[in-house]
Protein 1
Amino acid sequence: MTVWRDAALTGWGRALRASTRAARPERANQLIEALDAAGPSLCLYGAGRSYGDAALNSGGATVITSRLDRVLAFDEETGEIEVEPGAAIGGLLRDFGPRGWAPPVAPGTGFVTVAGAIANDVHGKNHHADGSFGQHVTQITLRTGGGETLTLQPEDEAFRATVGGVGLTGAILSARLRMRPIAGDKAFVRERRMPSLDAFIEAFTESDRRYSVGWVDAAATGATLGRGILEEGESTGEPSRERARRARAIPFDAPPFLLSASVVRAFNAAYYARIPKDGRTRVRPLSAFLFPLDALADWNRLYGKRGFHQFQCVVPPDATESLRAILAEAAGSGLASPLAVLKRLGPGSAGMLSFPMEGWTLTVDFPAAQASADLIGRLGATALDAGGRVYLAKDALLPPSAVPRMHPELDAFRAVCDRLDPEGRMTSDMARRLRIRRAADG
Ligand SMILES: Cc1cc2nc3c(=O)[nH]c(=O)nc-3n(C[C@H](O)[C@H](O)[C@H](O)COP(=O)(O)OP(=O)(O)OC[C@H]3O[C@@H](n4cnc5c(N)ncnc54)[C@H](O)[C@@H]3O)c2cc1C
C-alpha cells in the first residue's frame, strides 16, 4: 500500500513542507500506485539538489524517488547500465569506478539522482568533450501525467521533452545510459593560476584535458577581474595519497560578517595565492575532484539562516564582453561569495529546454537579500540580451517572459506536455512561477 503522508509531518526535509502530501516509495509498484493516487497537482523530487523551486510543489503532492536506487542491469562489455530513477551519480562512480566505468557526466555533487540529472540535462566538467547527461541516455521509461507508461528512445519527441523537462512530462521510472570507460578512479589534476579573464578564456580554449573547471575570484576588480584557478583533470589508475574522507559537517549557521565584502576579498586572495605561481599537479580520488562540496555536509549553513541564491548563466562563445560585464557587476556589488565557477561548454544538449549551449557558463553564489535578488535580475538580463540563458536548476527569481527568450523550442515542449498530460497534473512551484506550461499553469 502506498504511503501518502502529511508532508509537514514527515521529517523528509524542510523543502517539502510546503507540499500538502508526500510519498517516498521504495518499490517500483509503490511508485506507480503513488503516482496514480497523487491527485491533480503532482511534482517529482529526486535528491532535492536543485537550488530553486524546480522540485517544490506548494499546496500539492510530491513523490520522492530517491529510495528507488537499484541497478537493474549492467553490461560489462559496453558499459550500458539500467537504473531506477533514484540511483545517485556518486553511488554509480563509487560502485563502478573500480571496475573501470564512470557516469558519463557528473554534476558538482554526487548526491544528484539519475532522474534529476535527466530532468535538468545536467552538465559536468567534461561538457566541452562529452556533452550533456541526456546525450548518454539511451532509453527512458516514463509514467506520463496522463497515466500511461511509455518507453522512450532518443529520437522520440517525448524523450527530448523529458530530458531537461524539469519533471513536467511525467515520472521517470527507470533509465538506460552509457557509462564511460575510465583509466582508473583517480584523477590526475593540474591547477594553474589565471591572472585575468582573458587568460582564463585562452587557457580553456587551448585545454585538451577531458575535465576542466575554473574557480573565479568574483570579488576581484580592475586588471585582475576574472582571475582565478583553472583545474584540469584526466582519470588515471595511479595511486593517490589523498584518502576519500567522510564528509565533515558545518555545525552552525554562520554569522553574516563571514560574507562581508572585506572578508570575502581577503579569503579569495589567500585562496588564489595558495597555488604556486608555476602551478601544481596531484593525483586525487576522482570523486573528490568531481564533487568538491560533498566533503562538507550542510555547506549551505555557511550562508547563515537566510540562505543564498545561486546565479548561473551561459553566454555564447563570442559574448566575452557580456561575460566581463556580468563579472564586473557581480564584483562591484560587494555581494559575491567565494563560491564562483567558470566553465567552458561545448554545443551538446539533448532536450527541448536544456540549459547547455556552446559558450561560457558562470556560476556565483550570493547571500539571500533583496539587493542580491535585484542584482541577479540585472545579471540575468545581460546574459539573455547576449543570447544566453539562465539555468532553471539554479533559479528562483526569473520572470516568465525569460523562458521563451531562452528556449526557442518552448512551444514544441508545451505541445508534448499537453499530449502526455492533458489534465495538467504535472507541475511545480517553478512551472507555475514561470508559466512553463502556460494553459495548465496560467
Ligand atoms: C553542490 C551542487 C553542485 C551542482 N553542480 C552542478 C553542475 O556542475 N552541473 C549541473 O548541471 N548541475 C549542477 N547542480 C544542479 C543539479 O545537478 C540539478 O539541480 C539536478 O537536477 C538535481 O538532481 P536531484 O536528483 O537532486 O533532483 P531534484 O533537485 O530533486 O529535482 C530536479 C528536477 O528533476 C525532477 N525529477 C526528480 N525526480 C524525477 C523523476 N523520477 N521523474 C521525473 N522528474 C524528476 C524534479 O521534478 C525537478 O524538476 C549542482 C547542485 C548542487 C547542490
Note: Residues 43-50, 54-55, 65, 85, 107-109, 112-113, 115-117, 119-120, 122-124, 166-167, 171-172, 293, 393, 428 surround flavin-adenine dinucleotide (CB under 6 Å).
Protein 2
Amino acid sequence: MSKPKLALYWAASCGGCEIAVLDIEEKILEVDANFEIVFWPCVMDPKYKDVQAMPDKSIDLCLFNGGIRTSENKKMAELLREKSQVLVAFGSCAHEGCIPGLANLYSKDSLFKRVYKETPTTENSDGVYPQPVTKVPEGELEIPEFQEKLVPLSAVVPVDYTIPGCPPQPHQIWAVLEHIIQGKALPPQGSVLGAGLKTCCDECPRTREEKKIKRFYRPHEIIPNETQCLLDQGIVCCGPATRSGCGGLCVKVGIPCRGCYGAAPESPDQGAKMMAALSSVIDSQDPDEIEQIVNSVADPVGTFYRFSLAGSMLGRNRK
Ligand code: SF4
Ligand code: SF4
Ligand code: SF4
C-alpha cells in the first residue's frame, strides 16, 4: 500500500520551523516510515516543475511555514494549496506573520531605502534597487517581487489547520504527526492543532497575586524572584495574551513569555489583549504617573505584537 504523501515548505521565515521538525529526533524515522516525503526544499532538491507535475490533491499533508512576503511565496502557497488535501499553517510565521511581520511597521519604500541605501555596509551610490525583471545580454533575469506588506498564509489561500509556535515545540509536532499516523480523525477544519485551549498563564507554575505595578522592567533590568509571577514583579510577560501549548517553557526558567504561541483562544488580537492586561495592573490614578509607568514599556509594538502584527486587526502601521 502506498504511503501518504507529505510536503514541507519554507516561505518568508527564518527556517527554524524546519529545524523544529528535525527536533522530534529519532521519531523522524517514524515519519519517514509512515509518509512518502515528496517535497521538502530544506533537505532535498526539488524544482517548481516537480510540484507542478503532481496531480491536484495528491499531497496528503503539507506543513507550510513562513509568511507571504514575495510573489514567489504567494505562488508557492497557491500551488501547494492546489496540490494538497490538508494544508497546515505551521509555526508562527505562517500563522500570524511572526518576526518577519514586524517589517509591516514600515512601507516597502522605507525598507528598501534602509536596506539598499542607508545601511553602513552598503555601497550603492547609484541607488539601485532590485528589480523583478532585469535585461541582460543573454535574456531576462527574474527575481521574486517584494510585496508591500507581509500577510499570513491564510490571507492568500484557505488553510485547514494551524500549528502555532516559534517554532512549534517538538512534542507538539510529534503529537500531531502521531495522531495522523495512527489514522485518528482530525478535529473540525480551522482548528488549532498542537496547542492548548487556555493561556500560557494556565500552564505557568508561578504564584499569582494581585498585581500593583509602578514600573515595568525588561528581563535584563531585574533578577526575578523564582516563584512569583513575573508580571507581578513588573516584568512584561505576555502569558495572559498567549495560547497555551508550550508547557510554559520560558516562564519556568525565569524568562517572560514573549508570546510565540500566538493569540489566546478567546482573545484573537494578542497585542490588544496584552495592552488590556497591563493597563489593569498599573498602580496609579494620576495621569502623569500613569503615562510615566506606560512609558517604561520599551518598544510596545515589538513587545505586544512581536509574533502577531501581520495577523492582527491592525496588520501593519496605518500612519
Ligand atoms: S515561526 Fe519562528 S522558528 Fe518558525 S520560521 Fe518563523 S521565526 Fe523561524
Ligand atoms: S504573567 Fe507570565 S509569569 Fe505570570 S502567571 Fe502568566 S505566564 Fe506566568
Ligand atoms: S513561554 Fe511564551 S514565548 Fe516561551 S515558548 Fe511558551 S509561548 Fe513561546
Note: The two ends are 57 Å apart (CA to CA).
Protein 3
Amino acid sequence: MYLGVEQAAIPADCPPHLQFLYDYDGPIGENNSLFVSVSRPGDGRAPQGRATIVASSFVDLKDWGESADYPARKQRYTDAAIARLGQFFDLRPDHIIHVEAGTPRTFERFTGRDRGAVGGLGMRVNSFGPFGFANRTPIPGLWLVGDCTHPGEGTAGVSYSALTVVRQMTAGGD
Ligand SMILES: Cc1cc2nc3c(=O)[nH]c(=O)nc-3n(C[C@H](O)[C@H](O)[C@H](O)COP(=O)(O)OP(=O)(O)OC[C@H]3O[C@@H](n4cnc5c(N)ncnc54)[C@H](O)[C@@H]3O)c2cc1C
C-alpha cells in the first residue's frame, strides 16, 4: 500500500519504521500485521507539507493468482489496510492525497517473479539455512544468488548470498 498524505496525518515524533500486529492470535500477514515506512520532512520522498506511508503485509499467493473477484479483493485489502493504519495515523479523507496498492499480480507483472513471490521462499524449518537452496550448484560455473537461495529474503539476505558467492569464486571455487 502506497499512500501520499498531508503531513498532518503523521503523529508528532512518528518513527520512520513501524510494525503493527493487530490480533496476536491471528496470522502474521493478511493485513493482520503491517510493516510500515514513513517519510521524514525534507528527505525528498514527498513535497513540503506532505508525507508518504508505505505499508506491506505477507499474503497467501494462491488466493490471488486465480481470484475470480480480483478487483474487489484488491479493494477489500486496500480498505482494510487504510482502516488499520487509521488507528495510528490521522487518515481522514482530506488527509489522503494518493492511494496505490501493489498485489502479487503487480509484482508478477513488474518484477517477473513467479506468481509475484517477491521475498523468496516462505521460511520454514525445512527450507531455512542448511535446508534451503545452496548458492553453489552441481553445475560448474553456475551459482545462485537472490532471495530464494541461502540465507533468504530481504536486501541484507540477498546481498549476503552475493557476497558468499564472490568469496567462493575468488577463493578458487568453480
Ligand atoms: C512491498 C515489499 C516490501 C519489502 N520490504 C523489504 C524491506 O523492508 N526490507 C528488506 O530487506 N526486504 C524487503 N522486501 C524484499 C526484497 O525486496 C526482496 O527480498 C529482494 O528485492 C530480492 O532481491 P532479488 O535480487 O533476489 O530479486 P529481485 O529484487 O526481484 O530482482 C530480480 C530482478 O530480475 C529481473 N528479471 C526477472 N526476470 C528476468 C528475465 N527473464 N530476464 C532479465 N531480468 C529478469 C527483475 O526485473 C528484477 O529486477 C520487500 C519486498 C516487497 C515486495
Note: The first strand starts at residue 2 and ends at 6.
